[in-house]
């Protein structure tokens, strides 16, 4: 029986699996993944060994931003199913000892939400103050604040002769958290889902809740809307709702430095159990081409590991629905796909924190090489394409950037079989043609597959307390190839050695490490630890005792 009250830190000894419902499994063959489809695939999720799922939004929504624009938090978008399906899904996950985390999008609503429908009518409307309004300045937008989806963050509303603020699309007006009634309304939503069995929330765009109340022009856009001083008050109020309901929380908090994160996820006084930070995936360099340097990766991840040690808990991830596929971005998705997907997996999965796997990552799914803008669905990718062309860029170079970084790379349907296996209908977004070889069925039958490797990692991760609580320590190789670290407690530990490059490297395990025992590798050959010859994208995990 799942009891979050009796086991309040269950999420520390857990592996999470992120589901993007629209692309997971289509049960009724309309081309769109759905909740009954997720229910059907619970045995698969269970077979991974994970113990909780995080589902991207499937609530009532006009889907301007694929459900991150919610028009009713207590209803379900009919393309995904019904409320009954949702309750059934929660129940069936629980029966399988898998906890369920929903995505709570409370920095903004859809413009179709009844709060906004009311709010825009008049300045006297009781909901008006649920949103952020400013009068025009000299007949124009109130300030220079921009939307993360391009253009001004302000849209004019004729009925009140005001502009409203939206950090993302104009159909996603931001809520005004300065108004205590907003918190009251959101509190009810939290309580309602908790009553219906939800075990936790991923808090979407949560570092943006507070806006700079000067509403003055800014030089650095972050000063207007990210991690603005005073946000702590809102987060603290919200955290009481989560704690009262024994909910696990993970905040999406890009750009919050580790020094602030120490407050945010402090085990005693923090607002959330964990946050997602994005330093290691260069989230902010949208649509830039180029690989992350291994030295940089070591530096950023070590900064977070050390920064939260003894204070709070990290999330561990390489992919989500907003990022390109890890094997394409960090790895080599050509002839080294299997090796690079597994080396990357070992690198991040055994650090201190809670690992997340994004659907398809466990297969080593790759970026999709769409060569026509009409194949894309993501509004931000389409917006980028138009803007670049208007600036004089060529179609070819712009499509090349999208092939590297578009969020649609992560959103193509899950690859179940060699014929696709997602739906009998044309899917809402094309499948990656490589499903003929990269798919669940093939990988289940192959003990060397990426899938088999993830299963081994998950089992291992959950089986040894050293991997739960042992301290992380980087062994700095000062190069651009290797990532080597240990997890250790009471002189026992694990040594993780990965070559994250396309060229061979040498490595010597020093004599401090005794009784080395090879636990897992993505290569067939054993090595002499004191004179290792690391093939490209090879990964070795040793158990050791300290001298
Ligand atoms: C969050 C979501 C992303 C969405 C954005 C705006 O960052 O993860 O998918 O586009 O919010 O709604
Ligand atoms: Ca469907």
UniProtKB/TrEMBL annotation:
GO MF: alpha-amylase activity
Transmembrane segment boundaries: none
Record family assignment: Belongs to the glycosyl hydrolase 13 family.
InterPro entries for the chain: GH, GH13_cat_dom, Glyco_hydro_b, O16G_dom_2
NCBIfam families per the UniProt record, alphabetical: PRK10933.1
Glycosyl hydrolase family 13 catalytic domain: residues covered: 18-411
Any one GO biological process: oligosaccharide catabolic process
Biological source species: Lentilactobacillus parakefiri
Pfam families referenced in this protein's UniProt entry, alphabetically: Alpha-amylase
Protein name: Glucohydrolase
Keyword annotations of the record: Glycosidase, Hydrolase
CDD domains: AmyAc_SI_OligoGlu_DGase (cd11333)
Lineage: superkingdom: Bacteria
Keyword Hydrolase: yes
Protein's UniProt keywords contain Phosphoprotein: no
């Amino acid at each position: 029986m799942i009891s979050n009250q009796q086991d309040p830190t269950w999420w520390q000894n857990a592996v999470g699996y992120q589901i993007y419902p629209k692309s997971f499994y289509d049960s009724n063959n309309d081309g769109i993944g759905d909740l009954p489809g997720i229910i059907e695939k619970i045995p698969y999720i269970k077979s991974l060994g994970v113990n909780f799922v995080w589902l991207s939004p499937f609530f009532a929504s006009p889907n301007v931003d694929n459900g991150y624009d919610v028009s009713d938090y207590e209803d379900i978008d009919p393309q995904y199913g019904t409320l009954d399906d949702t309750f059934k899904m929660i129940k069936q996950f629980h029966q399988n000892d898998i906890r369920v985390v929903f995505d709570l999008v409370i920095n903004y609503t859809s413009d179709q939400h009844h709060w906004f429908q009311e709010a825009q009518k008049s300045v006297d409307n009781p909901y008006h103050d649920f949103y952020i309004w400013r009068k025009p300045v000299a007949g124009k937008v109130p300030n220079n604040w921009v939307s993360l989806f391009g253009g001004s963050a302000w849209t004019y509303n004729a009925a009140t002769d005001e502009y409203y603020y939206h950090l993302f699309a104009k159909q996603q007006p931001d809520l005004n958290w300065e108004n205590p009634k907003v918190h009251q309304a959101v509190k009810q939503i939290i309580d309602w889902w908790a009553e219906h069995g939800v075990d936790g929330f991923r808090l979407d765009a949560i570092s943006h809740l507070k806006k700079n109340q000067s509403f003055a022009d800014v030089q650095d856009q972050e000063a207007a809307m990210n991690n603005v001083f005073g946000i702590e008050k809102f987060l603290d109020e919200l955290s009481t709702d989560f704690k009262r309901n024994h909910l696990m929380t993970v905040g999406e908090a890009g750009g919050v430095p580790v020094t602030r994160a120490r407050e945010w996820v402090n085990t005693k006084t923090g607002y959330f159990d964990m946050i997602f930070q994005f330093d290691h995936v260069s989230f902010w360099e949208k649509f830039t081409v180029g690989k992350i340097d291994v030295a940089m990766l070591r530096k950023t991840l070590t900064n977070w590991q050390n920064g939260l040690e003894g204070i709070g808990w990290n999330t561990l991830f390489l992919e989500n629905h907003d990022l390109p596929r890890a094997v394409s971005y960090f790895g080599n998705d050509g002839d080294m796909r299997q090796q690079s997907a597994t080396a990357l997996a070992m690198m991040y999965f055994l650090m201190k924190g809670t690992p997340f796997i994004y659907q398809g990552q466990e297969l080593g799914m790759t970026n999709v090489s769409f060569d026509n803008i009409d194949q894309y669905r993501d509004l931000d990718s389409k917006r980028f394409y138009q803007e670049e062309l208007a600036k004089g860029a060529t179609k070819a170079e712009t499509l090349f950037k999208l092939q590297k970084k578009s969020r649609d790379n992560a959103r193509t349907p899950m690859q179940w079989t060699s014929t696709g296996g997602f739906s009998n209908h044309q899917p809402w977004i094309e499948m990656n043609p490589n499903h003929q070889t990269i798919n669940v069925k093939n990988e289940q039958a192959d003990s060397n597959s990426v899938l088999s490797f993830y299963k081994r990692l998950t089992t291992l991760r959950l089986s040894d307390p050293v991997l739960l609580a042992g301290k992380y320590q980087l062994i700095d190789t000062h190069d651009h190839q290797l990532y080597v670290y240990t997890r250790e407690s009471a002189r026992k530990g694990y040594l993780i050695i990965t070559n994250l490059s396309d060229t061979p490297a040498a490595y010597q395990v020093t004599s401090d490490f005794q009784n080395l025992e090879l636990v897992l590798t993505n290569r067939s050959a054993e090595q002499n630890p004191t004179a290792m010859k690391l093939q490209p994208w090879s990964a070795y995990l040793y158990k050791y005792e300290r001298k």
